[in-house]
Write a structure and sequence with these properties.
The protein is α+β, with helices and mostly antiparallel strands. The chain has a domain of 88 residues: Pdz3 Domain (Roll), CATH 2.30.42.10. The protein has 11 helices and 12 strands. The strands form 5 sheets. It has a 4-stranded antiparallel β-sheet. A two-stranded antiparallel sheet has the order 1-2. The chain has a two-stranded antiparallel sheet with strand order 3-12.
């Protein structure tokens, strides 16, 4: 019975979540391709053996496949779903009418639009999702609840635990997790007096502040920190926003998430931040399952919007095989006014694929380490 519940709580929400986000991404490619007159031969959710599908009147094979870890749009003339290159034999044998519908024969501006359609739809989906939530439920905030305590931080030494709710710092009321950072940063003392709520009991602790080098918007500055992270749960202020207000707030939230993610990645690259936060598919399944177990519908929607933004952003990275790699190539072709050498393209895609596999392996290793600490430490 326990195993069955784990499947319901972890596997099912993960498949639903990933399926929706992959559909949104690939539908962006599909729709822009159709608008540009390019024929889509296959629209797949998942990889491997086809489990179900149908062919529409435009001869596109819509299908669901056995491995639900991604998807693809394959265009007329492509050798595979990655659109990394055309099938040379098939391209040579095409009629002029077929060439007009093949991705390989389109001008680079159309190719660029089609490639950007996927990440663009991920961002559009997140903004619309946030807008609907803000109009229906009100604005969202991350509560001042400790999600994780850093091993080498002052909070750990002071006895702060995951799950503690911070009520006040130095006598000032704390309403959201962002208030914690603001109050600690503005503190002029070397010790913060923190009021906590733990299992209904009020606890007072004194936490020495730790000064670190933090980079934001390209500027490095020293800030005082206590070494805690937020959790994924959210709270609502129940003040519904107008359609325009909700849309503006959704755009602002999407921008905040994007810039925050980019800053975090930059910090990892330059060594100012550890790489343990880099998670993969297992971490996504774990987080979606944790939210599902709490029956937190709004949190699941927030998590879906967050992942949609990250999926769109990651796909824009200039790595061959990803959409961003295609964008760089097509921009170079537009600037040079000539198509890039096919052998060079092939070499770039092989390097990009190897890099992507390495990142996936590293992220999966991080996931297993994280799970081991959660279960056994």
């Amino acid at each position: 019975m326990g195993s069955l519940l784990n499947i319901v709580y972890y596997v099912v929400p993960f498949i639903v979540l990933l399926g929706i986000l992959v559909f949104v991404h690939e539908f962006g490619h599909f729709l822009i391709a159709r608008m540009c007159g390019v024929k889509v031969t296959d629209f797949s959710i998942g990889f491997g053996k086809q489990l179900w599908g149908f062919v529409d009147k435009y001869q596109t094979n819509w299908k669901i496949c056995a491995i639900p870890l991604g998807g693809y749009c394959q265009f007329l003339g492509d050798a595979n779903g990655a659109s990394a290159g055309g099938d040379d034999t098939a391209l040579k044998e095409m009629t002029e009418e077929e060439k007009s519908q093949a991705f390989a024969f389109q001008n680079p501006w159309k190719k660029l639009a089609i490639v950007l359609g996927g990440p663009g739809f991920n961002y559009l989906f997140a903004i619309l999702l946030f807008t609907g939530m803000f109009m229906t439920f009100g604005n969202i905030t991350f509560p001042p609840v400790v999600g994780e305590v850093m091993d080498d931080g002052p909070a750990k030494a002071a006895g702060i635990l995951a799950g503690d709710r911070i009520v006040s710092i130095n006598g000032r009321e704390i309403k959201s997790f962002n208030d914690i950072g603001a109050e600690i940063t503005l503190s002029t003392k070397s010790v913060a007096k923190i009021e906590l709520l733990r299992d209904g009991e009020t606890i007072y602790v004194e936490v020495p502040l730790k000064t670190m080098t933090v980079e934001e918007d390209g500027i490095k500055e020293k800030r005082q920190m206590i070494g805690i992270k937020s959790r994924t749960s959210v709270e609502l202020d129940h003040e519904r926003l107008s359609p325009w207000g909700a849309l503006c707030t959704a755009g602002s939230e999407t921008w905040r998430i994007t810039t925050g993610t980019l800053r975090g990645i930059k910090q990892m690259i330059v060594g100012d931040r550890g790489t343990e936060d880099l998670g993969g598919i297992i971490r996504i399944a774990e987080m979606s399952g944790d939210i599902s177990r709490k029956h937190a519908g709004v949190e699941f929607l927030v998590f879906m919007a967050l992942l949609s933004i990250n999926l769109g952003l990651i796909n824009l990275f200039p790595i061959p095989v990803l959409d961003g790699g295609h964008v760089v190539i097509f921009l170079l072709e537009i600037i040079s006014r000539r198509e890039m050498n096919e052998k060079l393209k092939e070499a770039l895609f092989k390097c990009g694929f190897a890099l992507l596999i390495a990142l996936m392996v590293f992220a999966t290793w991080n996931d297993f380490v994280h799970l081991f600490k959660r279960w056994f430490v």
